[in-house]
């Protein structure tokens, strides 16, 4: 198990010994002036990133692990041009079972199993047989669920942590149910289905087994298009799925970001689409707000400038 | 009581007699080629507007009523350059008690008294003594309440009918309460106070005793600024009202339209302000959507182009 | 066959007899003041639209045809509130074979069969077996080709005529081939495939058997998303279709409008996508320009204000 | 009195003694690896900022001063990771009377008293008794004047120095008087009043007793709203102040930034408001231009990229 | 001389005789159903436009005048589809000397000769010999001055009347002189030269001998580019004109509209350019404001929506 | 000849000797604490920039060379605050003939002479005698051609290397010829002339004898305006050059950037202008794309964020 965190390294002096587990972000073989190779690593945990260099036994060490692996590093702290780095003496790959994922990547505060059960309950509550069948097919697709239950909702911005996508989707389901009495003409089953599926394409838009990034498909095609494809794939299996219902689900997905400028190829044109966009927006903005509150430990009544929202946020909210 | 509506005049032939009550929108004295005066009127009911002209006894008739009055017109239908107009023979002012306001201007589906009672209940539920006192001062200000209970929320766009402002504000209160469990760190009393007061300046921004329009102050200063002034006026009366609480209420008012582009001089910087803007936006957009649904009796699956939302809206929502 | 066109009706006097074929755009049953029904029609040909009314034998006449049918009208020219309309005495449905489609809707200057053969030649020229197979599957899908060979490229704007989509797509193929020598690193087969398929979703986005309009699916989902679905459907049939190749085709479709503002959920990120967007843009703009030149018969050196391009266009181009 | 400035520290060698007065910007207690506390300071003068650390007698030293105090530091220059910092041996708070404010913060080139007298002359020149009374009330409010006479016009951008607000406001008064002959229909007294009061809310929007920053109220409510409140407060005291005149003053304040995008909730709708916005804009832009000229000592004919104006500025203006 | 104006025609009955002078805007030969030609005219005076038709002696009448001529019309008032038109019996061309131009096109309130003399005085006041020579060359170019002294400053928008360009340019000169004391570092001669020449290209951008419109060159090249060319033409004649001074004049012309969005290919980068843009903007906006005040005779405190400024304008400015 | 490049200096140790040729970017005399002067240089080659300092014989060394000269430096590698710099012992100016320009600035892959010959062939092919004469005048203007044949097309962005302007212009000529068959109504000679001349103003907008930067005229007036002036200068020499043809060439130049936002004071209004803008855009974007491909040696399938295009670009284009 991990003993120290990179955020504490400012207190480690040159020459002190380091022996701990890290996640490999970058692994690159470079060459010294004398022509001999050395290994340049960037390793991280949830608190930051640090450089490490292997000068000896480079060949052998190189073969022991790959990028995105967990490794046990034994080495000595040193400095290069004013920056700390680890002079690595030995390195071993460490199995996933040996580490607590939460020490290395940001993770939802909710248990993955709890969120999955909550999803099951939502699906069970639907009355429309086609929508229920559609969501059930997703739920029973274990390959999909293995991804969906841990996917983040974004690379940074909002709900950018493992489990964030499901947490975010279920929050929207809850919000829609909360306000449903004011909008009696809505098709609640359709709206809930849209809440669950609106970002489903993110399981393929993002890479997130360990560190978060976009996939090629994510950048080139995007989660909206991918999401529609994933939904189409399931709908094809369901006998007599009404064409118009399928079209309305697709509309929810393609319009959920609200405007062209935000990457939605269509603006919301149904009541369900208007509400889904509004609740998606609320859930995202509140999450950004909360994250800014937690991240900001500085003095003063305002956070530092918050880029996603484009403004400073007020921290001192408590009213006497 | 009113017998016929202007929307039916396409079925009235030239020469048919007209005898009914109308609301005077425009009253102007013009002159004929021979130098004699005549009276040009534009009169309306909730279904439309029609021209009327008084050719005889102009002096006497002119003295009998003013703009924005209800009048009983006796005359004959005629045409001028292809457009129907009433050749008015006699006209009498009619007291407010003789007419049903709903025949002339759009009005909330809710009873004004019911909405006012609902407001009272909301105020009574508050725990923060300063906020409760603040809202109570508004509630007990009968001059204000006479305006607030019938004010529309806008000239056109959304909730543009008598009682629309209170209906809209209470809807936001309800929405905020509905979703409060997801956002436990919010100060619910503050948020509810913001929901009630965010558009309070509209009682002075708009003219709406009968027809809806902007006041001079509404155009030159705007409801956001007016609303802050009205709130300040009450706060000054309350002993020891906390300065920071006052500031947070003002922030809710100045930021509720969300962005500079929409006329808010500040973007939401507190959690309550983010939520208030989102719920205000939802209430307004759904109201626009519903109004478009009701107004559109045409064939086809889409409404005509909806200007406020900038898109066509889908009417055929029912899923099999 | 059609004898006269609506554009000539300004020369027809009230009371003159009308006997000709028209296309039904709107058909609506309304009621007279005496409670009896009458039939209100809007009928068109390629030169304009005119109102028509059936006052007698309404029941029987109503049953004889539907909207979007061709009908032979016998009637008398009359006027209502200064506008010409046909007082219809008799009406009969006319089979498609009896009319020349070009008298009623705008049609490509090229023969549909010629364009289809040109498409075949393009497909035959491809070397990449997967891309060739993909396009061949579209080509051999007769149901699809019946639509694709007559589809317009837009409702108005550019290539808004039957056959316009194929004409436009083949023009882009030609343009890409013309310039290929400058961009030797491009995958020409991929680019050509993108040129053929980039707007393929328009066969479902638009209605165009006779008059042009959007389908429900067109408004709610859009041709980009529909196009990707149609391509996916074919790719699924092809064994071992490379995943990356499929992704690159999807990227060409989702990015071909160039920017978010123009409704593309992704900007071009490959060289082929950059070129496809540029050539699509060129083909569309030149078509808008030519259409404006043809439509403008006025005096002066400039066309009237051209809305799609947002400017006046210079007509007097010939240099001495 | 101050002897050296931070801008000269590049010439101070490690180990040299430092003994001088600085302004405390940041004061923070941190902990060493051995658990003992140390004091981290950021201190500044008008030429820059430097770090300082207190390693000994931390408790005692901490109690001797607060943030935003002037302090006499005795210490030794040292380096940490390539950056100069002061190893502080002793520190004492220094009274305001002992320092020349101009050594620490940017200050207007004009004497505060001169500007105040100029303001008095402007007020004395007004003919409209209500406007004269209004401005006199501000002038006689000593608490207000203590702030107004030293307030900056902005945190950075333009007139960002002590006295800048009054200097800027009086410049606009002068500009308005200069051009008044061209616009004879203007109400000059009203325009001058607007020039004086348009930014008056900045005395509460900004903190500026020493370093410049926004107040909480400044960020959450903004100087436009605050300014209206301040004006309202005075108007309430004046008997029979005409309602329309009050409205026109408020309009000048809310519209002076010209457009929604610049944070004005209303665009100028009166001639005075149009002119005030234009002159405010001119004064601000010229000040930005001059500041860029002074700040830029580099070679070449252009300044470095000027962010507030979004362009490079030409320095080599002199025409032969 | 003209006796009646088109604005009074609402009081003229069908069958009344018309005998008066008009300006020909459109002259077009059309054909009746029987194949015989008739002449369709649109004629105007400063108050409006009216249709006229010549049914008899068409050949002969056609030869008597051209578009943009003044003509004496003898005819009878009639109506066509609810709109008044003149049934023309006889028509004669009228020489320019017989009419008062002001009856037909909008004209500056200032006498053209007075404005020209004022220009002379400005030029005489310059000290910089090169700038004085440059402006003198323009002034002594009689062909140019014949155009410059009557040119409008725009087709509509602001100063859209004969003489408007010179009136507008001299107003800017005056404004610049008024405020010069605040900006002592400015090169006043350069600024004044820019004020005179900034819009000089409009003499070729617009057609304005009688009715106002764009020239081909105006639309395709624009007054900024034309202005620079005109200035270059004069500068070439002046021996040893300093290159940098020429560049600074060109900069004033190309940047005077302030931003790319307003059609300036460069933003102001010198102090003179900043001030010129600001004063140009002020002069234009005030003129738009005044024009709106004059044009609006309606009731209510606001003008109708003002398109150039994008807002309603307040009319009731007088403060008690 | 140059032996080593700055990109290799990371392998040079402090104390190693340096003896090589560099290009002087910055040369500045500063003063040491003891009052003695030293010389601070920034010198570059095509791979980067490095600081150099002359501590001895400063007077003499200073006189030996100027900014933008090539110099032979003899010195010793040292470090200052973690950054490498050359301690210069001796320096000599080196003549242009002694260096290969390509070692110091980016240069077209094409030979300048080859490009010039290609230009000659294009001119020779024109049929319109006026356009042929116009281009010939440019071609025969040796002073101009010395600049035109080596000018870059931009400071950074696209074709930012010596020879880039001619390479870019000829590429557009070729593209226009390639696609000419689709647009038979175009005046190809006019379009080709526009392709050659559209950016001709860049020979004066940019400085590029060695390092690339804007000239004063480039920033203040811009290449569009300069280009029109240069073309006008030649046209004046040609007898009877048709006015309309001159106007159409000017239109091509002023509109070639397509929109106001991109700095064009006019949008394309002729077919030739539409096509020229489109081809210019294509050539520029493809060049940006290729440059990004070459510059990016990192891992992963995407380039780093590409600023000119505002997106990531996909590198892994090869389809299996």
| Helix share bin of chain A | 25-40%
Sheet with the most strands, sense and barrel status of chain A: 5 strands, mixed, barrel
Structural class computed from helices and strand pairing of chain A: alpha+beta
The secondary-structure element order of chain A is EEEHEEHHHHHHEEHHHH
Concise account of the structure shown:
The first copy, chain A, has helices at residues 58-62, 112-125, 129-140, 142-148, 164-179, 188-197, 202-205, 216-220, 223-235, 243-255, 271-295; strands at 17-31, 37-45, 48-54, 70-80, 83-94, 206-207, 213-214. Chain A is α+β, with helices and mostly antiparallel strands. Chains in contact: A-B, A-C, A-D, A-F, B-C, B-D, B-E, C-E, C-F, D-E, D-F, E-F.
Structure explained in plain terms:
Six copies of one chain form a homohexamer. Chain A is α+β, with helices and mostly antiparallel strands and 320 residues long. In chain A, 39% of the residues lie in helices and 18% in strands. The first copy, chain A, is built from eleven helices and seven strands. In chain A, strands 1-2-3-5-4 form a five-stranded mixed beta barrel. Chain A has a two-stranded antiparallel sheet with strand order 6-7. In chain A, helix 2 packs antiparallel against helix 3 (129-140) and helix 5 (164-179) packs across helix 11 (271-295). Chain A is elongated. Chain A starts with 16 loop residues before the first strand and ends in a 25-residue tail after the last helix. The model of chain A has no long low-confidence stretch (mean pLDDT 90).
